[in-house]
Amino acid sequence: MSASIVTYDKFLPEIPGRCPWEKPSSFLVKDTAEPSGWREDKSGRRTSQLLLITKLRAAVDKWRAEGYPGASEVTIRLFQYWFEEDHNVAGFNVPFRFHFCQREAIEALAYLVDVAGVRDAKVLVQSFATVFSKDLLTKNLEFQQTMDGTLQLVRYVPELDKVSVHDLPPQGLARFAFRMATGSGKTWVMAMAMVWSRFHKQRVPDSPLSTNFLIVAPNIIVYQRLEKDFKSNRIFHELPLIPPEWKCTWSQKVILRGESAEPDPSGNLFLANIQQLYENRDAAWTPQNAVEALLGAPPAKDLSSHERSMLERLKGLKDLVVLNDEAHHVHDEDLQWSKSLIAIHNTLPKGLSLWLDFSATPKDQSGRFYPWTVCDYPLAQAVEDRIVKAPLIVSMEGDKHQPKDPSNVSKDNVTDKYAFWIRAAVQRWKVHTAAYKDYGVKPVLFI
């Protein structure tokens, strides 16, 4: 194990020599017989219990090994540029490489579109589902339809050890979810998907994709992070995403939340939070009498100055790809934002080209992973690949002064209630600050 700058009670989990851009071939398991508490299992990569992953991984692995047969020329060129050519990027001391998890995510998407031609959740499940059986009597995998026409998947969920019923996306809606650990670079995968979709639409005859994109953020914090990357198309200029011979054709209009700019005929990127998807500009108007209630809100006096809402502008596009960041924040299918996206899907001539969910935990409110999850990259894998640091739980249980868990906590007394733990965190931060001083690194403490 590598030596740590700060001494810890236990060894940090590590696989010596692991490179994050290579396909993993082993994983760590807890083993009390080992001095480190961990043992490397070399029987293969970390397995997944998610519905589609085992069979889809095998299909994509075979596709990659054979040189991507059946892929469009756009897909092959982008994969060659991204994963086979050398890149020197400012801020990186070594040649830049995309992580294997990023590669596998975009490969899975391209395989489903270019080769498998999947445009429907039922077909996706029928093609790649692994049936996890509990017993001979349990419903392990079947479809049913509700009275209102909603297609549902009934299946045994091994991680919950029970049978669950999932509502599936409407027929013909290509919706895929990507489970990617926080810090593993899912924003880069979003950018790769946009570049791939744009050039696919422009260069592949009868492409089902789009040059128009909507990125949805669940809150202002996520929005501001995305704005930093995508405003002025910054991410596309700083990372090796566009092959040199195609850069002259790259042009994308970015429309941020609160902006009233009209989109171009093609090549648009809308960046919005979920509230803008159900914004109602007439919400402030209330009828003053029975006649007004019957006739509704009066039209704008100056039609030439009427600014269309973001939802109206999105519905006016020819096609659209939706990228839903931090999807676990907005997993209730009854929420208005979801209904708005379905409304856009129903309005566009051929529906949404793609609906992509990105999250470290793409689950619904019952704790079940979306059955349309096509990429599984958990935190444990990210730690093994050295992409993110191992989370440590600092225990103060040996301190006789440690109080019991506080009760009746409010915003007015939270600092006092948790004073013991805050002081412990500050002391830990001071230790790290002193240890890293000579390295020019400033540890950060979040409370």
Give a structural overview.
The structure is a single chain. This protein is α/β, with parallel strands linked by helices and 447 residues long. The chain folds into two domains: 53-279 and 308-384, Rossmann fold (3-Layer(aba) Sandwich); 393-447, no CATH class. It has 13 helices and twelve strands. The protein has helices at 53-65, 73-83, 100-115, 121-128, 186-203, 220-230, 234-238, 290-295, 310-315, 336-347, 379-384, 414-417, 419-436; strands at 27-30, 38-41, 141-145, 151-157, 162-167, 175-180, 213-217, 253-256, 268-273, 321-325, 354-359, 373-377. The strands form three sheets. A seven-stranded parallel beta sheet has the order 8-9-7-10-11-6-12. It has a three-stranded antiparallel beta sheet with strand order 3-4-5, with no helix packed on it. It has a two-stranded antiparallel sheet with strand order 1-2. A hairpin with a 4-residue loop joins strand 4 (151-157) and strand 5. Helix 1 packs across helix 3 and helix 3 (100-115) packs parallel to helix 5 (186-203). The protein is globular, with a radius of gyration of 25 Å. Mean pLDDT is 88; it is low at 281-285.
